[in-house]
Amino acid sequence: MAHFTVIGLGRFGITTSLELIHLGHTVTGIDSDEKLAEQYSTELTQTLICDATDERAMAELSLHDSDAVLVAIGEDMQASLLCVLNLKNEGVQNIWVKANSKAHHTILSKLDVSRIIHPEEEMGVRVAQALNYPMVSDYLSLGHGHYIVEVVVPQTKSPMTLDTVINGYKDDIHCLMVKRKHQIHCTPDMAFQLKPEDQLVLSGPRELLVKIAPRLKH
Ligand code: ATP
């Protein structure tokens, strides 16, 4: 279990906070809007009313105790940047910041924060990928064109083995596991019999994963 602080309880900040709580972590939510702080006081571990641009007020919150602080103030770039500076002054090491514009991103990249997030762009890319490859239920980019993808086995008349799916690409595409309801079969062999609705977790280069995608068309 880790402890996180989320500054700015707008849609992005509160969604992230509630998911972290759901995952078993503790979350302090901070907002200058007292109505929002009150609204989420029972759902989050604690909520605080504070103007994140106020250096002295921020110094009193012991934010360096958090495993990570997420700055989820997007609209007001000045407030977001001042908040980051205040966190740096307090010795917070792991700072994640939501950026709303290119200028915001450029300045944040000079402030040496741990991660700059563009929720709309990142979500837009994921939605486009999902529309492009509807058989892919989830994916993770490993960088340098390598991905881990989760693909659902379609209903087919003829039985399918793992070999049917990755035949011809065995050296580059690896099946990490097959998920079947609550069961997990790790690194199954090529003769593994697949059933409709099985979820295959495959890793490999993007262009080869795209090549085998038609074999899994629903
Ligand atoms: P979302 O899309 O997540 O709703 P947004 O970019 O539209 O975000 P913002 O106006 O950036 O929303 O604000 C997000 C939250 O940050 C709001 O609840 C706002 O009250 C809070 N906030 C803005 N400025 C400060 C500040 N200086 N200190 C603390 N909280 C702030």
Q: Roughly how many Å is the radius of gyration?
A: 22 Å
Helical content (DSSP H or I, runs of 4+): 25-40%
Strand content: 25-35%
Report the end-to-end length measured between terminal Cα atoms: 39 Å
Number of distinct helices: 8
CATH architecture label name of the largest domain: 3-Layer(aba) Sandwich
List keywords for this structure.
218 residues; alpha/beta; Rossmann fold; Alpha-Beta Plaits; 2 domains; six-stranded parallel sheet; five-stranded antiparallel sheet; 8 helices; 13 strands; elongated; binds adenosine-5'-triphosphate
Task: Describe the overall structure.
The protein is α/β, with parallel strands linked by helices. The chain has 2 domains: 3-117, NAD(P)-binding Rossmann-like Domain (Rossmann fold); 123-216, 2-Layer Sandwich (Alpha-Beta Plaits). 33% of the residues lie in helices and 29% in strands. It has 8 helices and 13 strands. It has helices at residues 11-22, 34-39, 55-59, 77-89, 102-110, 119-132, 162-166, 206-212; strands at residues 3-7, 26-31, 46-49, 68-71, 95-98, 115-117, 136-143, 146-152, 160-161, 174-180, 183-186, 193-194, 199-205. The strands form 3 sheets. A 6-stranded parallel β-sheet has the order 3-2-1-4-5-6, sandwiched between helices. A 5-stranded antiparallel β-sheet has the order 7-8-13-10-11. A two-stranded antiparallel sheet has the order 9-12. The longest helix has 14 residues, at 119-132. The protein is elongated, with a radius of gyration of 22 Å. It starts with a strand and ends in a 6-residue tail after the last helix. Residues 7-13, 31-33, 36, 51-53, 72-76, 79, 100 line the site of adenosine-5'-triphosphate.
